[in-house]
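ok, trying the design again with the full structure, not the truncated one.
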């Protein structure tokens, strides 16, 4: 590329048309600054990567030629848009690179510092050109350093531009806020499409029931009835086609929208090498830093959140992990410490591994520090395994460094990693070997806007667990519960896992419920496990994360909310908070409760059906207190599903419920072979004689009015009918 010379050769002047052309060009040059900046950013990045590569891998003719081309182009292009100071720095940078190429100058770490300071100056001058502000960089200082090949230590450090990392451009022109809103809305459309699937299933079921009810009528010559059925079938088929088309279009738009938010990991990691080099030099250490998987893409918000996490971990690896060069040589290691960052996809997650070959984490030293700082008692510290002890480095205020510096010793750093990771619903595992190094594995969702969650029911409410925390879902018996070290546990593949209850942790119900089959979630968090009792699981579902709002932000144990496919809200559980809460809880005493219940001998198994949380909870507590096993159903359809999976001695049902009334449910119960003789009690606020008559005609054996509801009446009726 051609360039404007620093000055015109003697004998040449701008006369006639040449003078006019120059004037017009100067008037128009300002509009080309943005074009120059976009081009210059690419060359600046190439220069920084190339300079660092020279230091790591040594000089090569090809690499030097590439650096020279970038510097030369920057010089010429800057002159074309009248950025004289920037052109001057690029010119001197080019000269120094030529000296390296010719052998007049030897490559050294100090010289690399000079070259990098020059790129910082160019970046600062580019920023000033964009903002039309005054030049804040002492260009003379930078030029002097480039001419001499060394930084003047006597110079005020403020004269040199500080490296802040390059602000990368993206091609997205919409505001970030609007893009986030669009992604959120598309996620909701996808959930609505899934809700339509559920509605279609209900329509198909109703059609099947219609067919069953029509019986011989369908075989008759009733033309109107046949026409009605044909129209219903056609409607269902049209609904199915529209639903599938909507689902396809919504998924396509959602994926395309998400792609706009995705950025490669290189967006943040390209700046790490420079930062780590500076830190290593300040600490008088040598480090080789490598990155694999820079092409792995993450949501923009996720990248912003994970950047400080990665920087904290990498800085900690250099400060605490990597030994000084002399120590490493004495230990038989390479003089330069090795730190690597590797990213790869794992399904709908990204795993980032950070490894170093430093001194590793010493569990005994961590124990001593924990006891000294009052984090653990001596007995608790002795009882903890080495694998568990090393996670104490993530506790707030925890530091093994006795001397405070600007880098470490203040008790901040890795606790920031933990808190930031919890916010983005990530997980980590830590492995370390004394003398050999440390490995930290981060598991991150691709996006914070939408994720797959496991829906569970607890005390009549629906909650969401991020799926990647759920290792397994088990069905266990209270007989499988063991007691170890004062806590109840379950054994899973030779591993003891502490047992707790979601209702007790959330403090929505302090009672200990027992039944022959228990639903248990095995949660995994930072290589720790917890078995958690829930009432039942409701399946997996993609959920769009909503903010809790100012009224609910103070709630413990929750990280957000969502709207389910059926239109109902649900709270998203914070697994990190649940693990923390479980640390200080008393034992569940599930086995004792079960044994006591066995001694009391259950008097019968009752199915309670009511869409009101208050009513069914009251009835359940009354019956369980009197030694009846109770199973809850929230609708007539739910009750029929429960009847498919187990036998009951009696059913208590409300009348007014969505989808199916208690009368309709009772009729269906009487039509089933296995429940034809099961007693049914109607408990309703409908108090007329007509409603009582309808209940008896449906097949109920008793009718209790809620307005006059008394505990004794229900118990007496249940006992009479079961006996």
């Amino acid at each position: 590329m051609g360039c404007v010379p620093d000055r015109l050769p003697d004998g040449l002047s701008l006369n006639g048309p040449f003078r006019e052309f120059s004037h017009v060009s100067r008037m128009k040059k300002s509009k080309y600054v943005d074009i120059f900046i976009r081009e210059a950013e690419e060359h600046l990045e190439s220069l920084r990567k190339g300079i660092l590569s020279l230091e790591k891998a040594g000089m090569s003719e090809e690499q030097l030629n590439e650096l020279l081309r970038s510097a030369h182009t920057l010089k010429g292009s800057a002159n074309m848009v009248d950025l004289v100071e920037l052109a001057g720095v690029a010119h001197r940078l080019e000269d120094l690179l030529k000296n390296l190429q010719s052998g007049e100058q030897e490559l050294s770490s100090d010289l690399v510092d000079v070259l990098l300071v020059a790129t910082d100056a160019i970046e600062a001058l580019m920023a000033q050109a964009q903002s039309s502000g005054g030049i804040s960089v002492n260009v003379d200082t930078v030029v002097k350093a480039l001419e001499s090949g060394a930084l003047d230590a006597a110079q005020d450090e403020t004269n040199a531009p500080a490296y802040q990392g390059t602000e990368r451009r993206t091609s997205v022109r919409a505001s970030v806020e609007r893009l986030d809103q669009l992604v959120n809305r598309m996620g909701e459309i996808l959930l609505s499409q899934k809700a339509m699937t559920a509605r279609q299933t209900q329509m198909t079921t109703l059609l099947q029931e219609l067919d069953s009810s029509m019986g011989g009528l369908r075989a008759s010559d009733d033309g109107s009835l046949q026409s009605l059925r044909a129209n219903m079938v056609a409607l269902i088929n049209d609904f199915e086609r529209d639903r599938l088309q909507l689902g396809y279009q919504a998924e396509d738009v959602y994926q395309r929208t998400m792609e706009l938010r995705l950025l490669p990991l290189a967006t943040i990691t390209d700046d790490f090498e420079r930062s780590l080099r500076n830190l290593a030099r300040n600490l008088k250490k040598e480090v080789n830093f490598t990155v694999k998987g820079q092409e792995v893409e993450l949501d923009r918000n996720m990248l912003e959140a994970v950047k400080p996490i990665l920087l904290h971990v990498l800085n900690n690896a250099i400060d605490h992990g990597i030994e000084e060069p002399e120590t490493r040589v004495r230990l038989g290691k390479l003089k330069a410490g090795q730190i690597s960052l590797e990213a790869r996809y794992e399904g709908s997650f990204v795993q980032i591994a950070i490894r170093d070959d430093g001194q590793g984490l010493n569990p005994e030293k961590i124990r001593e520090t924990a006891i000294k700082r009052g984090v653990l008692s001596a007995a608790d510290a002795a009882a903890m395994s080495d694998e568990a002890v090393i996670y104490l480095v993530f506790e707030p205020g925890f530091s093994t460094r006795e001397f405070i510096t600007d880098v470490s010793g203040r008790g901040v750093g890795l606790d920031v990693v933990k808190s930031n990771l919890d916010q983005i619903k990530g997980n980590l595992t830590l492995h370390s070997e004394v003398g050999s190094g440390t490995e930290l594995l981060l598991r991150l969702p691709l996006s914070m806007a939408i994720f797959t969650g496991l829906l569970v029911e607890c005390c009549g409410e629906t909650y969401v667990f991020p799926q990647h925390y759920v290792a397994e879902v088990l069905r266990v018996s209270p007989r499988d519960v063991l007691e170890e070290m004062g806590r109840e546990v379950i054994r899973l593949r030779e591993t003891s896992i502490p047992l707790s209850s979601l209702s007790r942790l959330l403090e929505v119900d302090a009672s200990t419920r027992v039944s022959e089959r228990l639903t248990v979630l095995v949660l995994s968090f930072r290589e720790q496990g917890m078995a958690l009792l829930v009432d039942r699981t409701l399946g997996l579902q993609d959920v769009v994360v909503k903010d809790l709002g100012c009224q609910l932000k103070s709630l413990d144990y929750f990280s957000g909310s969502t709207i389910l496919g059926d239109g109902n809200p649900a709270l998203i559980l914070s697994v990190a908070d649940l693990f923390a809460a479980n640390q200080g809880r008393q034992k569940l005493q599930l086995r004792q409760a079960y044994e006591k219940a066995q001694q009391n001998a259950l008097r019968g198994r009752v199915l309670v059906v009511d869409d009101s949380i208050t009513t069914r909870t009251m009835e359940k507590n009354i019956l369980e207190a009197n030694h009846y096993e109770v199973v809850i159903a929230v609708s007539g359809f739910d009750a029929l599903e429960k009847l498919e999976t187990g036998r009951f001695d009696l059913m208590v049902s409300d009348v007014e419920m969505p989808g199916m009334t208690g009368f309709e449910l009772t009729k269906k119960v009487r039509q089933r072979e296995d429940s034809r003789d099961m007693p049914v009690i109607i408990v309703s606020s409908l108090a007329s004689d007509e409603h009582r008559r309808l209940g008896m005609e449906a097949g109920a054996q008793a009718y209790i009015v809620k307005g006059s509801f008394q505990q004794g009446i229900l118990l007496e009726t249940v006992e009479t009918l079961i006996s």
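Keeping the full-length input from now on. The first strand starts at residue 262 and ends at 264.
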